[in-house]
Amino acid sequence: MVKQVLAPLPGLFYRKPSPDAAPFKQEGDPVAAGETIGLIEAMKSFFPVEADVAGTLARFLAQDGDTVDADQAIAELE
Amino acid sequence: MIKVLKAGLETSIQDYPGRIGYWNQGFPPSGPMDSWSFRFANVLVGNQPGAAGLECQFLGPTLFFDADTVIAVTGADMRPALDGEPFPMWQSVAVRARQTLALGAARVGGRAYIAVAGGFANEERLGSRSTFNKAGVGGIDGHSIKAGQDLPVAEGRGTPGLLVPNEHRPDIRTDRTWTIEVCAGPNDDWIDDAGKKRFLSSAWTLSAKSDRTGFRLQGPEWTFTEKAYNKPKEHGSLPSNIIDHGYPLGAINLAGQTPIILVNDGPSMGGFINPYTVPSAAFWKLGQARPGEHLHFRLVSVAEAQRMAKQIAERCVREILVNA
Hints:
The complex is a heterodimer.
Chain A: E1 3-6, E2 11-14, E3 30-31, E4 36-42, E5 45-50, E6 55-60, E7 67-68, E8 73-77
Chain B: E1 2-6, E2 12-14, H1 35-44, E3 53-57, E4 62-65, E5 69-77, E6 81-82, E7 85-86, E8 93-95, E9 100-102, E10 108-116, E11 150-151, E12 162-163, E13 177-184, H2 193-201, E14 204-206, E15 214-218, E16 241-246, E17 251-255, E18 258-262, E19 269-272, E20 276-277, H3 283-288, E21 294-299, H4 302-315, E22 322-323
Parallel strand pairs in B: 13-21
Antiparallel strand pairs in B: 1-4, 1-11, 2-3, 3-10, 4-9, 5-8, 5-10, 6-7, 6-9, 12-22, 13-20, 14-15, 14-21, 15-18, 16-19, 17-18, 17-20
């Protein structure tokens, strides 16, 4: 079953903890419930995008640096 | 009292027009960024337009009411819910003791406002209840609200069932594009004609590195007049450096090549030029703009900016409200 991970607030989406770091997750990686798969930046702060269930990261629906809305689907877990 | 169950993202008590009269000592006015929505929230619940209310930013709080009251939520749509039921915005609504109001993430706009009949009764500091986080002044203990706190509310009597008609609400954009008024100066003579034209014709992207201190913009290069290069050394090494001077509120402050709009909690002085200034009547748009959205600037006269401010103030009154 496909489960979407949603943006917790509007802002800029990043797949990496810092510009020079590796992405939190690649497509195909396992994801635990509560695990961070990306960050959203707003008001000079970064907020984790967390999976609320465990699964395998099937694909990202938002790209690194994209502007996202609240509740926009960021990734799909299977 | 209202108990904070979840604080949201730097939700703070603000009043309008805020902490006026201390700019010369470095205290900004603070206050709500979208004072149009804020004033209407107060007017809906029977308060003076400037009474202390809550500003919610991008992610709203969850509040528990320990007494019956009348409240209103305006501004950004954070899908407010009362005990899980959708709560109507831009209306005065009766809330019963032991009910819980929850705001989520902003779906339209960036900042929502919550007013309570009577207004918040935190202590005034330098003549205002507004929160100035950076200095730890105003609000509750100088800072944004925190989970577990009890927010004191003054005695008040509101009338439920009042509504702000659509045509009197601010037009919060859903197309990610804003036209923001600016007045020229104080240092527009440091920018050359090409630079001025570029500023007024370009789309500027609002950076996520923006908060109540400054709104950072990304866009094209700035080019300068002779004045920016041919100046005494003490002005500093960058073309946008100037010997330290006072900043107007709303200044588009040029830090090297990065323009930063100095907003409600901004600095009062420094060593960069301010080629343009956003008038207070356009601040509501900044308050509702979100990271990644595009800002276009439109040049207006000071007289026009003052007229706009007057028109907003004339709207935010009891006589405009209708029955829901």
